[in-house]
Design goal:
Blueprint lengths: L1 E3 L11 E3 L13 E2 L5 H13 L9 E5 L5 E3 L2 E3 L1 E4 L3 E5 L6 H13 L6 H7 L9 H6 L11 E2 L5 E7 L11 E9 L6 E3 L11 E7 L6 E5 L7 E2 L4 E9 L14 E9 L2 E2 L4 E5 L1
Parallel strand pairs: 4-8, 9-12
Antiparallel strand pairs: 1-2, 1-7, 3-4, 5-6, 7-8, 10-11, 11-16, 12-15, 13-14, 13-17, 17-18, 17-19
Helix pairs in contact: 1-2
């Protein structure tokens, strides 16, 4: 069984827990079967893409516990967990938490114990949540190459992409993902130097801004040192989940009709070319 506790605030560090998977699904008291919302199909595609693993989405059985923010499993407070075979259980408040759900999806795609660094921090880093216990399980990155040049984030190519490119209420129920990328254009490995922060917290790595909506954006911190290390030509990414007004399963708070420009940044270095979207 895998547990995941993910914070709603992207800059806060959640805890992750794990234990061995039983032979039969472990269902906490009150768990109810539910049909996955349309956004889950998009999130499954993103998780398959980053992991290189493929499986039938229809094989996963989904449960949630109504009215809950966390679940108590074996004395631990969690927001969701995966258990063999092919079962994911979520707290009610976590049903629409994309990074958390994709974390559990990655477990389902792997059908294996633990949080290997290769998958949770390298292949799918920024797509699935991996902090707290997940980081502990993955272990630290290999020692940095002392000869690798330290570069300012401005030395990287920052871009943004909408997935899908043309969101609509008829596609994934109005849900879409803004993917911010940072690419090392050099033929040698580099280590990006992120701006320092106050209070001793990790630096901000990726962030985004919707130009047309004042104050609407988000950011994540560099909880793992691996996010600053780029192989020659390597691209790192961060997924930010968004939705349109009237999206299935969400209600109010989505993007209303209008034209929007999305910008992304890595280490404070912003993309020059935005992604644009017109919502009719």
């Amino acid at each position: 069984m895998r547990f995941a506790r993910c914070s709603v605030a992207l800059l806060a560090a959640p805890l992750l827990f794990g234990c061995e998977s039983p032979a039969a699904p472990l269902l906490v008291e009150g768990a109810q079967r539910f049909d996955p919302p349309p956004a889950y199909h998009l999130w499954w595609e993103l998780t398959q893409e980053c992991s290189g693993r493929r499986a039938l989405f229809s094989r996963v059985r989904w449960y949630y516990v109504p009215g809950t923010v966390t679940l108590e499993v074996d004395g631990q407070r969690v927001e969701g967990y995966w258990t063999a075979p092919n079962t994911i259980v979520l707290a009610h408040a976590a049903v629409h938490d994309g990074p958390l759900v994709r974390h559990e999806m990655l477990h389902a795609l792997q059908d294996a114990d633990g949080h290997p660094r290769e998958f949770f921090l390298e292949r799918c880093g920024g797509v699935v949540m991996c902090e707290g216990r997940c980081l502990e399980d993955a272990g630290p990155p290999p020692p940095a190459n002392a000869a690798a040049p330290r570069v300012d984030p401005s030395a990287l190519e920052v871009g943004v992409e909408l997935r899908p490119r043309g969101p609509s209420l008829g596609l994934y129920g109005g849900h879409f993902t803004l993917v911010v990328t940072a690419r090392n254009p050099r033929s040698d490995a580099v280590i990006a130097t992120l701006p320092p922060t106050s209070f001793g917290e990790p630096s901000t790595s990726f962030e985004y801004l919707i130009e047309n909506l004042v104050g609407l954006g988000g950011a994540v911190r560099a909880w793992d040192a691996g996010v600053t290390r780029f192989a020659p030509g390597e691209t790192k990414r961060q997924a930010f989940d968004l939705y349109l007004a009237g999206a299935v399963g969400i209600g109010d708070g989505g993007l209303p009709p209008g034209t929007y420009r999305f910008f992304g940044a890595y280490g404070g270095h912003w993309s020059a070319v935005p992604a644009t979207l017109t919502v009719p």
